[in-house]
Fold this sequence. Notes:
The protein is mainly beta. The chain contains one helix and eight strands.
Amino acid sequence: xxxxxxxxxxxxxxxxxxxxxxxxxxxxxxxxxxxxxxxxxxxxxxxxxxxxxxxxxxxxxxxxxxxxxxxxxxxxxxxxxxxxxxxxxxxxxxxxxxxxxxxxxxxxxxxxxxxxxxxxxxxxxxxxxxxxxxxxxxxxxxxxxxxxxxxxxxxxxxxxxxxxxxxxxxxxxxxx
Length: 176
C-alpha cells in the first residue's frame, strides 16, 4: 500500500511539473503573412506597368499588365503602414470565346507585401481567373525574410478594367 501511495504521489508531482512547464513556455509569435487574412487594395494602372517574375507569365501572348506599387495592405497582424507592390497580368488572348455568357481570362500576379519599413517582407505569387470583374484563384508565399510559408485562396477579389480599382483578400489555408 505504501509503495502504491508513493508511486501515486510521484505521478502527481510529475504531472504538476509538466503542466507548469507547459504554461511557462512562451507561445510563438504568429507571422503576419501566414496566420490571418490580408486585404490589398489600390488602383492598378496599365500605363507604365511592367510585369516581372511570376507575373510575367503570358501563355497566350497578348497580355495586359496592371500594377500598383503603392497599394495598401491591411490585416489583423500587420502594422498600419503596411504596403504592397501588386502586379497582375491578364492574358487577354486566352479568354473564353466571345459568345460565352461570361468572358473569363487567366491572370498571373505577384504582390510584395512590406509590413513596415525594416519589417517583414513577403512575396506571394497569384494564379487566378478574371470573369466579369471577379478574380477567383489562389496564392502561395514564394519568398519571405521571416521564414513564412503559406498558401491560400483569393476571396472577395476584383479588378475593374474601366476604373483600374483592385481589391484582393488573401485567406490562408495552410501555414507553417
